[in-house]
Design brief:
CATH topology: Protocatechuate 4,5-dioxygenase, Chain B
Largest sheet: 8 strands, mixed
Shape: globular
Strand content: 15-25%
Number of domains: 1
Radius of gyration: 17 Å
Number of helices: 10
Number of strands: 10
CATH class: Alpha Beta
CATH superfamily: LigB-like
Length: 280
């Protein structure tokens, strides 16, 4: 059977992708951030999965306000890199895994989670920046990727509890796939940040670090956190952190092994958090 061996958590700030693409990663402002992923890039080379299930949010690229799925799973063979207004990022196209994606959709929908099945979509920085941070600048991504888009842009957004339980359903689906695949699940977005209004630029280091502590040690309790707490403490875009609960819910119920933890501010006007957890 397939199995989920590890989970990766990281912010997906668009300016990070721009810094990498424009050759600025070694500039004094950006160097400390990229150095925090040195371990991660080597770890991924040493522990290359067969498939990455990547949880992210679309930024009005594949989905506009005309159509907003709460949860959308990509089942295509490949995905083009989106033009977000300044041309597509100069990164490889994303190769999918239609067989596993379709199996997960079947299993999760039968477990009473309503997924939107997407057979064609472009993927934006929410998906490509995490891949760049973990893989560096490459000619091809190291393995197929299943995109899983979550609406955290237009309210109402899914609760942390629903995201955590969805992760458990994804774990069950992966484990029932009749092929010995090594699967990693990545949760992206966050951490504390607000992009507009009087609190634009908000960063809450203490709250972010506490979130990381609880994600590792008490994820089921963390999943009960109400939305208003994310908005009050982590800013209007801090709600992206519910996507990390999907990845955490997909992990084993036993305590994970913490392989790497990193936190850095600022990256543009955002706090960057990063974890690698391995199943026991």
């Amino acid at each position: 059977m397939a199995r989920i061996t590890a989970s990766v958590y990281t912010s997906h700030v668009p300016a990070i992708g721009a810094a990498l693409d424009l050759g600025k990663s070694q500039e004094p402002y950006w160097q400390p951030l990229f150095r925090g992923y040195d371990y991660s890039r080597q770890w991924l080379r040493d522990n290359r999965p067969d498939v990455i299930f990547l949880v992210y949010n679309d930024h009005a690229t594949a989905f506009s306000l005309d159509l907003i799925p709460t949860f959308a799973i990509g089942t295509a063979a490949d995905y083009a890199v989106a033009d977000e207004g300044w041309g597509p990022r100069p990164v490889p196209k994303v190769i999918g895994h239609p067989e596993l994606a379709s199996h997960i959709a079947q299993s999760v929908i039968q477990d009473d989670f309503d997924l939107t099945i997407v057979n064609r979509m472009d993927v934006d920085h929410g998906l490509t920046v995490p891949l760049s941070l973990m893989c560096g600048q490459v000619d091809a991504w190291p393995c197929p990727v299943i995109p899983f888009a979550v609406n955290v842009v237009q309210y109402p957004v899914p609760s942390g509890r629903r995201c955590f339980n969805l992760g458990r359903a994804i774990r069950k689906a992966v484990q029932s796939y009749d092929e010995p695949l090594n699967v990693q699940i990545w949760g992206t977005g966050g951490m504390s940040h607000q992009l507009q209004g009087p609190r634009a630029g908000l960063i809450n280091r203490e709250w972010d670090q506490r979130f990381l502590d609880r994600l590792i040690a008490e994820p089921a309790a963390l999943a009960e956190l109400p939305h208003i707490d994310y908005v009050r403490e982590a800013g209007s875009e801090g709600i992206e952190l519910v996507m990390w609960l999907i990845a955490r819910g997909a992990m084993s119920d036993a305590p994970p092994k913490v392989l790497h933890r990193f936190y850095h501010v600022p990256a543009s006007n955002t706090a960057v958090g990063h974890l690698i957890l391995e199943n026991p």
